[in-house]
Design brief:
By secondary structure, the protein is an alpha/beta fold. The chain has helices spanning 3-20, 28-41, 49-85, 87-101, 126-138, 144-157, 211-220, 223-236, 257-268, 278-283, 304-308, 310-317, 356-360, 378-382, 385-405, 414-425, 427-435, 446-459, 467-477; strands at 104-107, 113-118, 121-124, 172-175, 178-181, 186-188, 246-251, 273-274, 296-299, 321-325, 331-335, 339-344, 362-367, 436-445, 482-489, 495-506, 512-513. Strands 8-9-12-7-13 form a 5-stranded parallel sheet, sandwiched between helices.
């Protein structure tokens, strides 16, 4: 007898035994399966054990579905009979039946929000499951009151606090083909116990690599920058904003920053991404709700309003509780874990540069390698399932390193970050870097310095700031500069002591050197023009 014939004999035996229901469902595995194994040993050739187990599982699963469907049909017919006699009792039985059949969670105070478990995650339930099921079971006898009453009873039976959706340990990550355990690197089956409201569109494959994405990163970033990006990609998957950081991608056009944002979007999935600016978060009370259960907040522009809204920024990146509110719906508190990521050609000018803690939260990655050869639809080569699976492994390596280090591999401190941000967006910073150099004993009056600054801005088509702002910011950018009184010409055109800068000169000009005593009678200070 052939192996194929043996398989058919085994399949027929299992199918008939299960369908007869002689052996209760609870005893299928303990009583019936040993008989199947015994029958197999009597055949020649014997079906291998692993193949036999697959045949058993397949037929048992199919028979379970058949019997469940048959039992459901009988129960649904009974519910309809009761409903036709007594609508209150009928909707109660219908609600109990739907709750038993589906995994449902209801949250909310002002407005009920109902979720049903489907394919690894909880999704909005009303229009997807609840109302269609009520319609199907009650058929043409259903009316609006019956739907409403059944819905309310289901909600009462399945009511939870919203915090139920944040009770799962951070180490679990829901993927397309299972739940990834960050600690064990193992994939387990989907289960409603995890209570995820989302799922990443990633098929986990421990051997997958992202060769093309790595090549792209190496073309546009330095090795140190790639480390930061790798850690940041992994951080997206961590459901806690434990490291109070935000990322700014800075670079001109055709340097790769937009492509990187597309890669991140493809990795996380658009459903897991928000795009709420800091300014909008502070000015629109409904915008914060868009961050709820999102993993990345990608904003493809950083405005002056965003960079100046320090309060909203600290709230968004602080890992604390945020108040969200739906329009005409619930107001609720939640812990934000949507990581703030900005992209811009240059960082807007910072007006308040005294808050060191604020600057300590920023990480700046500059894209300074223009792409020489443009490839049409290049991103599509990075947007494959294999690249995404490999990029997830790459991101997990970064996340593991981040958690071990307890900090990002970002080398700059708050002061250095502040300087870089200000230099990127400030015409004063650019003027300082390009036009001033150190010269011991050199002196420049403040009026003359401002004239040079205005001329520099005019030649470079830059916006000018006031003379007062120049005086405020210049010492920050030019550490060797000192403020004091120097010999000059006063407002009446006479030689006098005037406010100026010491130890500096304009590049390319001969400095005025003050070799004598720069002090003067303090009784004259009140008459001098203050700046």
């Amino acid at each position: 007898m052939s192996l194929g014939n043996n398989k058919e004999i085994i399949k027929t035996f299992i199918g008939q035994a299960l369908a007869s229901q002689v052996i209760p469902f609870a005893e299928w595995q303990t009583v019936l399966f040993p008989l199947v194994v015994k029958l197999n040993t009597l055949q020649t050739p014997i079906i291998p054990n692993d193949e036999l187990a697959l045949i058993w599982d397949s037929i048992v699963s199919e028979e379970k579905e058949n019997q469940t469907e048959k039992n459901d049909t009988q129960e649904e017919e009974e519910i309809l009979k009761v409903f036709l006699k007594n609508k209150t009792e009928g909707t109660y039985l219908l609600a109990k039946y739907i709750v038993k059949k589906y995994n449902i969670i209801t949250v909310g105070e002002k407005e009920r929000e109902m979720f049903v478990y489907r394919n690894g995650a909880y999704m909005p339930a009303e229009n997807e499951v609840i109302y269609p099921e009520i319609q199907r079971i009650l058929k043409h006898h259903v009316n609006k009151n019956a739907k409403t009453e059944t819905h309310h009873k289901i909600a009462d039976e399945t009511s939870y606090s919203r915090s139920v959706f944040s009770s799962t340990e951070y180490k679990y990550i829901p993927l397309k083909n299972g739940v990834f355990n960050l600690e064990t690197k193992e994939l387990t089956s989907h289960d409603p116990k995890y209570r995820f409201l989302y799922q990443f569109p990633i098929v986990y494959d421990s051997k997958a690599d992202c060769i093309k994405t790595k090549s792209f990163l190496s073309q546009v970033l330095t090795p140190d920058q790639i480390e930061i990006i790798q850690e940041w990609m992994g951080y997206y998957f961590y459901r806690y904003y434990m490291f109070k950081k935000a990322l700014i991608l800075v670079g001109d056009g055709d340097t790769g920053k937009t492509t990187l944002l597309e890669v991140i979007t493809h990795l996380l999935g658009r459903d897991n991404i928000s795009s709420v600016s800091l300014h909008k978060m502070s000015s629109d009370k409904f915008s914060a709700a868009h961050l709820y259960n999102k993993h990345g907040n990608l904003v493809d522009e950083l405005s002056a309003q965003d960079i100046g809204d320090t309060g909203a920024f600290k709230v968004a990146t602080g890992g604390g509780s945020i108040t969200g509110e739906y329009k005409f719906g619930n107001q609720f508190s939640f812990l934000n874990f949507s990581k703030y990521t900005f992209a811009c050609n240059k960082v807007p000018d910072v007006t308040d540069f005294n808050d060191t803690a604020y600057f300590n939260r920023w990480m700046i990655v500059r894209f300074e390698k223009p792409i020489q050869k443009k490839i049409p639809n290049f991103f599509l080569s990075l947007a494959t399932e294999e690249e995404r699976s490999g990029l997830f492994n790459f991101a997990m390596q970064g996340l593991e390193r981040l958690l071990q280090q307890q900090e990002f591999s970002y080398r700059k401190n708050a002061t250095e970050t502040k300087q870089e941000m200000m230099r990127s967006g400030s015409s004063i910073a650019m003027f300082s870097a390009e036009m001033l150099e150190q010269k011991d004993g050199g002196e420049i009056s403040k009026d003359e310095m401002y004239e040079h600054y205005v001329e520099y801005c005019r030649k470079n088509n830059l916006a000018t700031e006031t003379i007062k702002m120049l005086g405020t910011k210049l010492p920050f950018y030019v550490v060797f500069l000192t403020d004091g009184y120097i010999s000059g010409i006063n407002g009446k055109g006479k030689p006098d002591q005037v406010r100026g800068w010491r130890n500096a000169k304009i590049k390319g000009e001969k400095p005025i050197i003050k070799t004598g005593d720069a002090e003067f009678d303090k009784s004259n200070q009140d008459a001098l023009k203050q700046w």
